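Protocol step 4 of 5: obtain the predicted structure for the target chain.
Materials: sequence only (see below). No template structures provided, no constraints applied. The aim of this step is simply to have a reference model before the mutagenesis design in step 5. Sequence pasted as it appears in the construct record:
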Amino acid sequence: MFRKFLEMLRKGDLMTQALEDSYKMFEESVSLFETVTEAFFGKEYPQGFDVYSEDRRLNNMERGIRRKILEHLSINPRQDIVGALVLTTVIVHMERIGDYSKNIHELAAKKNYTTDCKYYNRSEVLARKLIPTCRRAVEIYRKGGAEEAKLLIEELHDLKQEFDRNIDEIMEEKEITVKNAIIFSLLFRYLKRVTAHTMDILTSVWQPFDLIDFFREESPGE
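Step 4 output (structure tokens):
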């Protein structure tokens, strides 16, 4: 135990390191989401970019943060318990943003959709609203601004409802090809899930632990 204590002192505060790593993980998950979403709408990937490597990197970051939290608690079992629980909760959402980014990449790679579809234009407009909003979420998470987090969650909630409205409309659409209906329903769904995970991360900034992931009473299906 004493050897572990000395190792911890040499490494510095593991909880601080884990928190700093979570900032980086959130930033990288949003960056991955932005890159693949831009690719869906026609932008070339950066040279050497590989979505699966980036997704594995996020997975490794999540495991690394967990290890630091576990090591910290093994030395200080009564210290920073709430902080440890919060971090282990939010990094799951960051990892899920990476998963949905991978799903968007796979939609784009199939090239089974047409750009003259009205849902292509709608999804592009909404995605270009969501991307900078997610970037703002990263900064708010880093700064810990509770009121800013609450206001941004409201914006994200509005976007989430827009994605739902478009999915519902596609279900009733009579003049859309089967391929476009499938692709854009999935795209709106993935964008909605990225939005929801970003909201869940922001709840950690202003909600007590037992209310993290709960913004307001959601209706079934949300």
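Step 4 remarks: Confidence is low (pLDDT under 50) at residues 1-12, 217-222. Helices lie at 2-11, 14-40, 51-75, 81-110, 118-143, 146-172, 178-206.
Proceed to step 5.
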